[in-house]
Amino acid sequence: MKADNPIQTKSYAFALRIVKLYRYFCDEKKEFVLSKQIVRSGTSIGANVEEAIGGQSNKDVLSKMNNRAEFIDHGKKWLRSVAKLTGRIRERRVSEILSRAVREFPSAETS
Q: pTM above the 0.70 mark?
């Protein structure tokens, strides 16, 4: 990973936090279905960033970055769903996670 690319660094750190959240759901809350959706969405952000960095054209890069924004939105949806349907995360904690995602990846709100 290149140290001088803030989007790459942030997406990697975000993916690690999502994996930790997934482990928490599985180990502590015994929630296995919705948490898989969260981990897929959260780790796909970094995968799309990596693909964008290796893009062959500006169109390719923009396409991958738009995919990243979609996965951010999907992740937000799954986090809200887990909070609402299972009551297994406090609403405040979901808000903190979502706020952090929006701060780190602001284009998701404007794409």
A: no
